[in-house]
Amino acid sequence: MIIVAAKSLIGAFLALTVSPAWSEIQAEGSLTVSIAAPAYWCPYACGAHGLRSGFTVDIARAALESEGHKVVYKNLPYDRALVEAKSGRIDAIMPTFKGEAPSFVFPSYAVSLTEYCFYVPEDEPRRYSGLDSIENMRFVATSGYSYGEDMDAYISNNQGGRVILIGGADVSNRLREIVRRGRVDALLDDRLLFESSQNSVGLVNAGCLDGRHAGYLALSPEDPDRSNAIAEAFDRGIRTIREDGQICEILEKYRLGVEVVLDLSGEYCPSNLF
Asked: Which residues, at least 6 apart from 138, have a Cβ–Cβ distance to it below 8 Å?
């Protein structure tokens, strides 16, 4: 029994110290955590080689570094990042809704909070006020996203007809160009992402979906032991950066308020209420 237990401990240790892609030799007990996100998700996730990685990436990096781990960040289109993480070639993607990756491992704490809205040309009078209001509206959205149970069902039932889904690189700008060219009546997109962009001229908010969606660090299901260890380290780390105010400093850098992170209140960041 002692020999079996020892082997189990050795196996668990190796599972935690052998990283997937982009790994480097780390100090004993530390991990190199590989995270991917699209560059066009700014300010959630930005270019990996720019001055700002995005506030969710910065939160994940600060939380994991506080636990002695290292984060390596890379840009991938979201649908490809899902595939890479599911297969274990990278550790995680972010920010991700639980409904978009149900087999993945998630920490307890979220890194963002998203609201989805319809956007139309300025001269378009139609507005969204529930599913009945879009029965005669053609719109474009992003493939691989979850917009909530009711909207997901509507999209599934109308894809290829009233609904067009696109994926790949630079999706947000492509959505806008499709609307501007008159191919569809509206686009459905993340409110913060849309309103942070310079490419929103001529388009206006036509109404938002009910509910807001928590985004998480979504960890690969391929190696549950490793992913659970990272999730636990992330949860410990995010409690640390909440208490010491580092999460507030990150949000202030992006000129964002506490409302963009689930369950983060003015108690933690009293001056960060824009």
From this structure: 162, 163, 164, 184, 185, 186
